[in-house]
Design a protein that fits this description.
Oligomer: single chain
CATH class: Mainly Beta
Largest sheet: 12 strands, mixed
Order of helices and strands: HHEEEEEEEEEEEE
Radius of gyration: 18 Å
Strand content: 35-45%
């Protein structure tokens, strides 16, 4: 199950930032673009972000297949993701992925020429690539105005056919996203808490072998 949750988490990221860069996407909703541009600009203004998140997987009947929670730290190009059984560190140059069950860490070098997926990108310019987008209804959740934006992939070979993005209208931040697969499964990634004011030390993004006695290091750089 751990590998399933890990792969689904990165599926969510890949859905929200696709690598192709097609032009001429058709008629996008200018009102939806205003909302998404506001989210992107707001996120870029933060010097650092610490966010708690949850991931829920449901089948076509609405039955919950599993849930997962974690924390993500972001600062410039650096990030750290902590979920049950696994930690991922990116110091801006290298990515270290630690597996608690095997006490093993694999280290790879970031390829600047690749269209790599990072947590930062889910809050920024994911929408201007392979999606058509429109603004749906506005609802009130726990006293907050939430705007729903529907994204449709232009590439119909994708395993999903729709993504819903929910935006806190006042805060201009994404509260959750829901991916609808052609199989009927739904994946919901929700930000349960976001802190943008507490300073984040750069040491947070570096895997320290001294803190993991006996760890096996697999250096793939």
């Amino acid at each position: 199950m751990k590998k399933l949750f890990t792969s689904v988490f990165f599926l969510m990221l890949s859905v929200l930032f696709v690598s192709a860069q097609q032009k001429g996407l058709g008629n996008n909703d200018p009102e939806a673009k205003k909302v998404l541009d506001g989210v992107s600009a707001k996120f870029k203004s933060f010097k650092g972000v610490q966010a708690k998140f949850s991931l829920k997987i449901e089948n076509g009947s609405g039955k919950t297949l599993g849930t997962k929670t974690g924390i993500v730290y972001m600062k410039a190009s650096k990030y750290r993701i902590t979920i049950t059984g696994q930690e991922i560190y990116c110091d801006g140059v290298n990515i270290s992925t630690y597996d608690k069950s095997t006490n093993e860490v694999s280290i790879t070098k970031i390829d600047p020429s690749a269209n790599s997926i990072t947590p930062q990108k889910i809050f920024t310019n994911f929408y201007d690539k392979d999606f058509l987008y429109k603004l749906n209804q506005e609802t009130t959740v726990a006293g907050k105005k939430i705007q729903e934006i529907e994204l449709t992939p232009t590439d119909k070979s994708k395993p999903f056919f729709k993504v819903l993005v929910y935006v806190d209208k006042a805060a201009q931040t994404i509260t959750s996203t829901k991916v609808f697969e052609k199989t009927g499964n739904k994946y919901t990634y929700a930000v349960t808490n976001m802190n943008t004011t507490t300073p984040i030390n750069d040491a947070q993004f570096v895997f320290d072998t001294k803190k993991y006695p006996g760890v096996e290091v697999v250096d793939l750089r």
